[in-house]
UniProtKB/TrEMBL annotation:
InterPro entries: Aminoglycoside_PTrfase, Kinase-like_dom_sf. One of its GO terms (molecular function) is transferase activity. Keywords: Transferase. The keyword Transcription does not apply. This is Aminoglycoside phosphotransferase. Residues 76-257 form the Aminoglycoside phosphotransferase domain. SUPFAM superfamilies: Protein kinase-like (PK-like) (SSF56112). Gene3D superfamilies: 3.90.1200.10. It comes from Skermanella stibiiresistens SB22.
Length: 364
């Protein structure tokens, strides 16, 4: 593969690390782009990938973003379902967003619904990990004592783009109705149990090994919050149809089975305390996803920001940062997610009687 300035800069940084001094430049290969936030570079013969951020989805400066992502891998690692973190290449002028060196996972995209149990086991392995007892021990990850309120604050920031997103009136009314429900729901006094969560659990972020183990390979938004967000993000239509490689539309029986599998995979106390929250958190997670879609539609039209390793905010959804095929794919998915027919079908999960609502109490 032809060398590029990025590969050359990464190579110069990589060979300074113990164990990588003899790696030739030709061993570095840029993989096809499949996501909006990272490039991935394989280091041939070393069993590792370089995860190279293109932006910070959390709006962090470059160094803080990389430190945060490293912490995501370190905290989720003991569960046994994420790649190991080998090294951190801090941002500098040549690699403005830095890079993580992580284990390369050999596997295939999930096949849904057959691989849902494996995905749920991977999530349960994270949710079952002990939580550091002190705030200092939980830093730098986001630490949400009120995961509903904190997540809805993110939703509100996304929703600021609804007016500019060109929604059909029926879609806007439906989203506004859910926003009104969420605002009322957030006023309740009780809170869901807190666990470590990935907050980026859509099926396209997993690889399934030849042993049938699902490995969550994309970690950058982990936080201490409510497990119901992960379960929703793994199974909502806006997640299961996001990635071409594992596109699927799940039926209510598939959804009910996935949630039941999780309830049986985590500690009993966590399952019991989480049960009344699972369906409401599904609604909130969908709101997060659909309002993010409006945000992307608006912000993707902007010009890309210059990559500077000292920038105070490295979030950038500009279409300029990704190839045209990926941008077209995302635009098509966003158009579907914002379509009033799609929105009505998704909302039927909690507005109509079906096996999912029978399994998961509303918590209301």
């Amino acid at each position: 593969m032809k060398s590029t300035p990025l590969l050359q800069a990464l190579h110069r940084r990589l060979v300074r690390l113990s164990g990588f001094q003899g790696v030739p430049l030709e061993a570095l290969a840029l993989l096809p782009t499949t996501g909006l936030a990272h490039d991935h570079v394989r280091v041939g013969g070393m069993g590792v990938l370089l995860r190279v951020p293109k932006q910070s989805q959390l709006g962090l400066p470059a160094s803080d973003n990389l430190t945060y992502q490293a912490a995501c891998f370190e905290r989720c690692g003991p569960g046994g379902h994420v790649p190991g973190l080998r090294a951190v290449l801090l941002p500098d002028e040549t690699v403005p967003m830095g890079a993580l060196v992580v284990d390369e996972i050999k596997g295939r995209p999930p096949m849904l619904p057959a691989d849902l149990p494996a995905i749920i086991r991977a999530l349960a392995s994270i949710h079952s990990l002990p939580i550091p007892p002190s705030p200092a021990g939980r830093r730098p990850l986001r630490d949400h004592a009120d995961p509903v309120g904190e997540t809805l604050r993110e939703v509100t920031r996304h929703a600021a783009h609804l007016d500019a997103a060109g929604l059909r009136p029926e879609a806007r009314r439906a989203i506004d109705g859910e926003l009104a429900w969420a605002a009322e729901f957030a006023r309740r006094d009780t809170r869901p149990p807190i666990t470590l969560i990935s907050f980026d659990a859509h099926p396209g972020n997993y690889l399934v090994t030849d042993t049938g183990t699902a490995v969550l390979v994309d970690l950058e938004k982990a936080r201490y919050g409510a497990a119901g967000f992960d379960l929703a993000h793994a199974t909502l239509y806006t997640s299961t149809t996001w990635d071409v490689a594992c596109h699927a539309v799940l039926g209510t029986a598939d959804l009910a089975a996935a949630y039941e599998h999780w309830l049986n995979a985590v500690p009993t106390a966590l399952a019991r305390a989480s049960l009344p929250w699972l369906l409401p958190l599904r609604r909130v997670m969908w709101l997060w996803s659909v309002t993010w879609s409006a945000k992307w539609r608006v912000e993707s039209k902007a010009e890309a920001k210059p990559l500077k390793h000292q920038a105070s905010d490295a979030e950038d959804w500009s279409a300029d940062l990704s190839d045209a095929a990926l941008v077209d794919h995302v635009a098509n998915r966003v158009a579907d997610f914002l379509d009033p027919v799609t929105i009505a079908a998704i909302r039927s999960e909690w507005l109509d009687a079906n096996p999912l609502t029978d399994l998961l109490p509303s918590g209301g």
